[in-house]
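Ticket #4471: structure export looks truncated?
Reporter: QA, pipeline team
Priority: medium

Steps to reproduce: submit the single chain below to the structure queue and open the exported record.
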Amino acid sequence: MNKSIVLVVDDDININRLVSLYLEKEGYEVISATKGDMAIHEFKKNNPDIILLDVMLPVLDGWQVLSEIRKTSQVPIIMFTAKDETFDKVMGLELGADDYITKPFEPKELIARIKAVLRRTQSTEKEKIIQYSMLYISLKEYVVMYKNKVVEMPPKEIELLYFLAIHPNTVFTREQLLESVWGFEFFGDSRTVDVHIKRIREKLPDCEQFGWQIKTVWRVGYKFELKNMEG
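Actual output as written to the record:
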């Protein structure tokens, strides 16, 4: 079985080496980068299975690297944040990060996060397509079409919409959505879900006329309400 390739991006040489040693001990193949432009180069060259990406980097910061990679790839990315700040976490999630971990961290926690993200992303069924009246969602192509026009959505909005749509009329709490779509078990910020739902709704105006909508269930969460079960 081939080893999973991990790209470690951190400008702190000591942290970079320490993380690399732990990962190699766990059986991963490790590639390192210490600058943002170097990270993008190594990503394109080596096609890693997962990326550990520090926020504070020279040349290009972590946000810029994340945005650049997300233009062409859905490779799992775990962000390193120096402070336990909600802003950094929400920013990472908005830009398409899969998880985050705050420095300083325990090696065992990092390994657990990596395994969880890899397990989730590698087992995701990305061949599925779901359709309702005037709505088409494809996780194979990461495309959403509404009224026969492509709707520009970042990956997490598409995944959230898809998850709700394949469970019509089922109510999910924000925590359940974080765990199912982002993979967080009590690590996420529930406001992230609200922001994503708000943006999805803005991009799918007047959808109620087609027999479906994303509905808020007061004090509980959200559901994809389907009034007409015909797809």
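Status: closed, not a bug. The export was complete when the record was re-opened. Leaving a note from the reviewer for reference: The mean pLDDT is 86.
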